[in-house]
Design brief:
About 80% of the residues lie in helices and about 0% in strands. It has about 60 residues and is mainly α.
């Protein structure tokens, strides 16, 4: 017998958790973007920072 995780939290909590995870991913990218220019290869880290920012924004605002 499988337990339905939406039974405990409901669909509202699922959306809230999804947006929170997306915000954390974007925040991680922003953190890299802020810390990157002080490194030895700032252009590389700025490009690397765009990946989690794009994934987080896509995750938050695109349809599933």
């Amino acid at each position: 017998m499988a337990i339905d995780p939406s039974f405990a939290f409901g669909s509202g909590m699922d959306k809230a958790a999804a947006y929170a995870i997306s915000a954390l991913i974007v925040g991680f990218g922003v953190w890299i973007l802020i810390a990157g220019p002080s490194s030895s290869a700032p252009a590389l880290w700025i490009c690397v920072a765009l990946i989690p920012i794009a994934i987080g924004l896509w995750s938050a605002f695109c349809d599933t």
